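haha ok so turns out i had the wrong file open the whole time. this is the CORRECT one, sorry everyone. sequence first:
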Amino acid sequence: MSEPAHVRGTNEPSHASLSSYGIDAATGEFIHPQAAPFYPHARPVADSLDYLENRQYCRNMTVEAHWPIVVSPSVCWQQIIDWAGRRYMYNYFKTRLNIYDITDPRELKVLVDKTFSGGESFGASTIAFNAKLGKWIMLQSVEVPRGLGAMGDGGKYAEPERVAGLMAKPMFRGFRVFELTSPTEWHLLAEVSTDALHPHGRVQQGSGALDVPTYHGGRYAFIAAAPDNTFVNQEYPNYVYSPAHLIYDLEDPCNPRLVSTWWVPGQRLGEDRAYRALRQYGNHTSWLGARMPIAVNPPLEQGGRYGYTVMGGLGFHVVDLADPANPVTAGSLDLPLNVGGVEGDNVDASRAHDLGIVLVNGYPMNEDGYEPYKDIFVIDVKDPAHPTLVGVLPRPVPPADAPYTDFVLRRGKFGPKRPGYYFQPGAAHSGIAIYPFMNAGIQVFDIRDPSHATIAAYFVPRMTGDFANTHSYATPMENVFIEWDRKLIWAFGNTGIYLLTTPALGEPHFGAPRN
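then structure:
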């Protein structure tokens, strides 16, 4: 396939020669290009497999059960709630929703298997118990299409008319609030547009809410969204907006109220000086702005004060939320420049309060190692004004009997995604972090010494799909959900759902949740 032809940005990476990166003959290690443009196609190197490997690998891990259920190839979402002594899992993506009874985790029971039609969908959702109301409350995001459709490699730069079409698309953009009346039933309490100026307009501005809202069941909710059409200083070629962070007051879930908006200077039209000063300015490649909402630990209602966010290529930030109506940047940290892919996607703040550390990572967008490797960074946040990089988790390596010396050669994408969510039941293990790693499956890291972490266990499923359809194989395992309380790992891949255990977490509990 020929390289894309479109109007180049002032700082856009050139396509790297296939001879300039790949396996180092002396070490067997994969050398990534120093930078690469957005490229949504396969780009195998000399030593890449020419087949999809029908083999799985395990180390210090047990597959307790497997179900050939695939809600969506590659990405899907999960949520767990406990109701009347039983545990339920929501597994979904856009037009398909499954609900399982996992009270006995080795005997998963499908209660709901629903496919939406007619423009309906199930958005990225958070479900939390509101103790004050004695009710389960669900916040469900509604956003504009994440991509711009069947576009060429140049994205919006090659077809700018698609941007105008997306902005003029009549649709609701924001989030909805529901009350659960049973694990499988809910009713609408409120519909909240993130476009505060045109909340009831046929054509609303901005992106709508991205990904799962941050909501712990108390007063405040955090939403990632571009609130209007000035938040468009976005280099990424297949996305329009540069999302900010919105804080809402949900004291009355029927009438959520916007409290404040926080963003990094340079995200909006009119902030030209700050925008042009960015290292990524004009590269037509980097994601600029929020991916996930602000992470808080502990929640504000439980005495928390600080929020944590990584804004794509705009760095890591600690936000002082002592006055939610006036969020203030307490401290910031530039992460190493890493173009392309997503430079900063999510923050795992589950150990922020107890240990004073957070884990931060981006994730790969290009296949076959055609971009810099995406590290998982350990950041010390004990001094909120001076967050400090103190460690990097090790790069996973294949077992000795694999037919390749680096996972990049296995085909598809290789690198970390999100280590589950902040609402996983129980308290996160202080010394163990678990990440899905695309074609390297599930990787379990020992982080008891954050500066010298090691890999404690892994599970790598077989590959499946068709090289003619990149979506069928490129991200064989992108999702993980951890029951910290029962010491169970749920992995969701293109070959189905896996229930995993590892001695690194301790003895698993297969009985009903202990409430």
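Helices lie at 161-167, 272-276, 352-355.
again sry for the mixup
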